[in-house]
Specification:
With 418 residues, this protein is α/β, with parallel strands linked by helices. Helices cover 36% and strands 22% of the residues. It folds into two domains: 4-75 and 372-413, Roll (Urease, subunit C, domain 1); 78-364, Metal-dependent hydrolases (TIM Barrel). It has helices spanning 51-58, 91-98, 103-108, 112-122, 125-140, 157-170, 196-213, 234-243, 259-265, 279-286, 296-302, 309-315, 335-346, 350-356, 359-364, 390-394, and strands at residues 4-14, 32-41, 44-50, 62-66, 72-75, 77-79, 144-150, 177-185, 219-223, 247-252, 270-273, 291-294, 319-321, 381-384, 403-406, 409-413. α5 crosses α6, α6 (157-170) packs parallel to α7 (196-213) and α7 (196-213) runs parallel beside α8 (234-243). The chain starts with a strand and ends in a 5-residue tail after the last strand. The structure holds N-(iminomethyl)-L-glutamic acid and fe (iii) ion (FE).
Length: 418
C-alpha cells in the first residue's frame, strides 16, 4: 500500500495561505492556485503545487486520484458556533415572532430556550446522539469538516453532562470533528431555587471538574443578556473557568451591549452575535485578540439587524461567520447561504467570506492546524464541480460540494448514502 496520495488536477484551489488573520481582505489577496495537485501523507498536506510536476515526481510512490472534470478545491469549512445537541422544535416561536412577538417576550412567556430545555431533558442520551449525528452529517454535506457544538439545553449538572457525554459518543459515529463547548450559563433554569450567582457557583464547583476529568470540553460559554446573565454575575464564573485552563467564549451584544466588553476583559477566544454592537464595541473588538463571530442565521431567524461585519473588518477585527444552528433563533443550519446573504447586506468580498468560514473560524476555536490549504495543515477540503470559485458564493449555498475530504480520506460523496 502506498502511504501517500496525489489528488488533482484542480482547475482552481483556494489556498488562503498567507491571507491575514485580521482585517479587510480583497479578492486579489485570496491566493488562488491553478492546475494544482495536493500531495497527502498521514492525513496532512505535504506538497501543493503544479499537478504535472507532482505527478512526475510521485508517480510510483503515491496513489494517484485523478480529477477528470473541471473542479475547484476549497478548505474544509468550520462552523464555529452551533447548538445542534437539542430535541424538539420551536416552529411555534417562529410563527409567534412573525406575528409580532419579540424573541425576549416569547422567552418570558414560556417559549424560548426553556421550552427546548424541557424537550432536551426528556430525550434519552441515545436520542440525542442520533440527533447530533444527523445534523452533523447535514453540515458535512455542505463541506463543513469541523463543527463546534454547545450544550446549554440541560441547565443542571446531570443534564449538561448528558448532553456533553452524548457529544463525546457521537464523535465515534461522525467523520467530522466535533468541538464541544459547555454552555451551562445559557440562562438560569426556571426550576432553580436560588440566585443566578448560586446557580453559576454550583456549575463552576461541581460541573467544571467533571468536564476536565472526563475530557468533555475545554471551552466555557455564557449568554450575557438581560434574559440570561449580567456582566457582573458572570465575572467569578469566568475567573474560575480560566483558572482551570478553559477557553472562554461569549454570546455577546445580541440585543444589548455588555457581553463583548466582558469577552475582551477575559481575552475570550471569541465574542459571538454582536448584532447590537456600536462604534465603541466595534473599536474594542478590532483592537483585541478576540474573534468577532457573526451569526447571520440568527438575524434571519429572528428578523433583526445583521452583525456590523463591514465595520468590524474595516477597523481590523478578525471576523468569522457561523450558523448558530439552534431550534429557536437560527433553525436553518445552512452556512454558505447565511454567509452570502450577510455578504450582500454588509458588502463582504469573497475572500472575507471564505476566510470567515475557514481559518478565521478555526482561530475562534483556538485551532491552528486547519482552515487553509497549505503544507503542514490537515488535508480537510471540499471539491466543487465548477470552473470558477466565484460560483460558490454567487449561487448562495445552492451549489453543494461533490466530495468532502477529512484528514486525507474522502468522507462524503454527493448522492451517496454512507
Ligand atoms: O445563539 N442567544 C442565545 N442562544 C442561542 C439561541 C438559543 C435558543 O433560542 O434556543 C443563540 O441565538
Ligand atoms: Fe448561539
Amino acid at each position: 500500500m502506498l502511504d501517500k496520495k496525489l489528488i488533482g488536477p484542480f482547475k482552481q484551489l483556494l489556498s488562503l495561505d498567507h491571507v491575514p488573520l485580521k482585517g479587510a481582505i480583497s479578492d486579489q489577496q485570496i491566493n488562488l492556485l491553478t492546475h494544482v495537485g495536493i500531495l497527502i501523507e498521514k492525513g496532512k498536506i505535504i506538497a501543493l503545487t503544479d499537478y504535472d510536476e507532482l505527478k512526475e515526481q510521485h508517480t510510483s510512490t503515491a496513489e494517484l486520484i485523478r480529477i477528470e472534470a473541471d473542479a475547484v478545491c476549497v478548505p474544509g469549512y468550520i462552523d464555529c458556533h452551533t447548538h445542534i445537541a437539542f430535541a424538539g422544535n420551536r416552529a411555534n416561536d417562529f410563527a409567534l415572532r412573525n406575528a409580532g412577538s419579540s424573541y425576549l417576550e416569547i422567552a418570558e412567556s414560556g417559549g424560548g430556550i426553556w421550552s427546548t430545555v424541557k424537550h432536551t431533558r426528556a430525550a434519552s442520551e441515545k436520542e440525542l446522539i442520533t440527533a447530533i449525528i444527523d445534523r452533523a452529517n447535514f453540515l458535512l454535506s455542505q463541506g463543513i469538516t469541523t463543527i463546534e457544538v454547545k450544550s446549554g439545553y440541560g441547565l443542571s449538572i446531570q443534564e449538561e453532562l448528558k448532553i456533553l457525554r452524548a457529544l463525546k459518543k457521537a464523535q465515534d459515529f461522525v467523520a467530522v470533528d466535533l468541538v464541544p463547548t459547555c454552555l451551562a450559563a445559557h440562562m438560569k433554569p426556571k426550576d432553580y431555587e436560588g440566585t443566578s450567582e448560586d446557580y453559576l457557583t454550583e456549575m463552576a464547583t461541581h460541573l467544571f471538574p467533571v468536564l476536565k476529568a472526563e475530557e468533555l470540553s475545554n471551552r466555557i460559554d455564557a449568554f450575557i443578556e438581560k434574559s440570561a446573565f449580567s456582566a457582573i454575575e458572570i465575572q467569578s464564573y469566568f475567573r474560575k473557568a480560566q483558572a482551570l485552563g478553559f477557553d472562554i467564549t461569549v454570546h455577546a451584544d445580541q440585543f444589548s451591549t455588555a457581553g463583548s466588553q466582558v469577552a475582551i476583559q477575559f481575552n475570550a477566544v471569541s465574542a459571538d452575535h454582536l448584532e447590537a454592537s456600536t462604534a465603541i464595541e466595534i473599536a474594542h473588538l478590532a483592537n483585541s485578540n478576540t474573534v468577532a463571530v457573526a451569526l447571520p442565521g440568527a438575524s434571519i431567524g429572528i428578523g433583526c439587524a445583521f452583525t456590523p461585519a463591514r465595520k468590524l473588518l474595516d477597523q481590523g477585527a478578525c471576523l468569522a461567520i457561523a450558523t448558530d444552528w439552534n431550534p429557536g433563533s437560527a433553525p436553518m443550519g445552512q452556512l454558505m447561504t447565511q454567509a452570502t446573504i450577510l455578504a450582500t447586506a454588509e458588502k463582504l468580498s469573497n475572500a472575507e467570506v471564505f476566510a470567515a468560514i475557514t481559518f478565521r473560524a478555526a482561530q475562534a476555536l483556538h485551532l491552528t492546524d486547519r482552515g487553509r490549504m497549505a503544507v503542514g495543515e490537515w488535508a480537510d477540503f471540499s471539491i466543487y464541480k465548477t470552473d470558477n470559485y466565484q460560483n460558490i458564493t454567487y449561487l448562495q449555498g445552492t451549489m453543494q460540494p461533490e466530495q468532502v475530504w477529512k484528514k486525507g480520506i474522502m468522507i462524503y460523496q454527493k448522492g451517496e448514502q454512507r
